[in-house]
Amino acid sequence: MSIIPFDDRDGQIWFDGAMVAWRDAKLHVLTHGLHYASCVFEGERVYNGHVFRLRDHSERLRRSAEILGFDLPFTVEELDAATRQVVAANGIVDGYVRPVAWRGTEMIGVSAQQTRIHVAIATWQWPTYFSAEARKAGIRMTWSRWRRPAPDTAPTQSKAAGLYMICTLGKHEAEAQGFHDAMMMDWRGQLAEATGANVFLLIDDKLHTPTPDCFLDGITRRTVIDLARARGVEVVERAMMPDDLAKAREVFLTGTAAELTPVGSVDDLRFTPGQLTELLSADFNELVRRPPAGDIAAE
């Protein structure tokens, strides 16, 4: 399968307030964000031409930047409008959106107070994160040797680029062993999340999910919690241990990329995608494709 590089595509990207040709959206090799990971981003999904929960994503981008010590030069409303503009300009009906903000080239050291803050938004067609075949049977996972860091060692409540280095390492190692993804513990040895998605376990007819105190409380995660409660399912957010997986009948992941993905196994533990996973997946698919009631409220 040939790979189309992301720097050599047709289309337009919103870059610092203006639409530019896709191939012209470039930055210098001495950009602070490249050297010191002073960069935050979002992942958003477009369904039927509308970005799901756009306002929540724009607000989180600003919060992430503030946690890293810089302010975006655009308001939440301007980010929302720019996102809609770039989706329309590229003719995206169902796809993915990647807003990103980073420190520029004015300083290239640990101190970076005088750097300019740049913001770009790109969008492209993107199918499901995992194949239909893998999703039907449930993806195969293994444990990552990398752990989510403690909140006093990293800005864990931001969607900061640097926090994903260990996710790439963990996923690459899992894929090299024939798995689809890796499950991660936190620094305490508690169950945390997958490399890019939150995790839910059905135990004794209750839906359990780890408390997001050192990783992101995902927007899709919160959506699925609301959907489960609307069906009368009790949702328990608590500290969880890896041994809790052995008690689960169903396990699934949630995330903007993963959407709602059943887990078929974690190493030797086996799970069958069951009724609750199927119901919540159907509810989620219906919700994201529901015609918006209004620009801001629907997003």
Write up this protein.
This protein is an alpha+beta fold and 299 residues long. The protein folds into 2 domains: 12-124, D-amino Acid Aminotransferase, Chain A, domain 1 (2-Layer Sandwich); 132-288, D-amino Acid Aminotransferase, Chain A, domain 2 (Alpha-Beta Barrel). 27% of the residues lie in helices and 28% in strands. It is built from 8 helices and 16 strands. It has helices at residues 32-36, 54-67, 76-89, 132-137, 165-176, 219-230, 275-288, 295-298, and strands at 12-15, 18-21, 39-41, 44-47, 50-51, 95-103, 117-124, 139-148, 181-186, 191-194, 198-203, 206-210, 235-238, 250-255, 259-266, 269-270. Strands 8, 9, 10, 11, 12, 13, 14, 15 and 16 form a 9-stranded mixed beta sheet that branches. Strands 1, 2, 3, 4, 5, 6 and 7 form a 7-stranded antiparallel beta sheet that branches. Strand 14 and strand 15 (259-266) form a beta hairpin. Mean pLDDT is 95; it is low at 295-299.
Keywords:
alpha+beta; 2 domains; 16 strands; disordered C terminus; D-amino Acid Aminotransferase, Chain A, domain 1; 299 residues; D-amino Acid Aminotransferase, Chain A, domain 2
Q: Which helices and strands, and how do they pair?
A:
Elements: E1 12-15, E2 18-21, H1 32-36, E3 39-41, E4 44-47, E5 50-51, H2 54-67, H3 76-89, E6 95-103, E7 117-124, H4 132-137, E8 139-148, H5 165-176, E9 181-186, E10 191-194, E11 198-203, E12 206-210, H6 219-230, E13 235-238, E14 250-255, E15 259-266, E16 269-270, H7 275-288, H8 295-298
Parallel strand pairs: 8-9, 8-15, 12-13
Antiparallel strand pairs: 1-2, 1-7, 3-6, 4-5, 4-6, 6-7, 9-10, 11-12, 11-14, 14-15, 15-16
Helix pairs in contact: 2-3
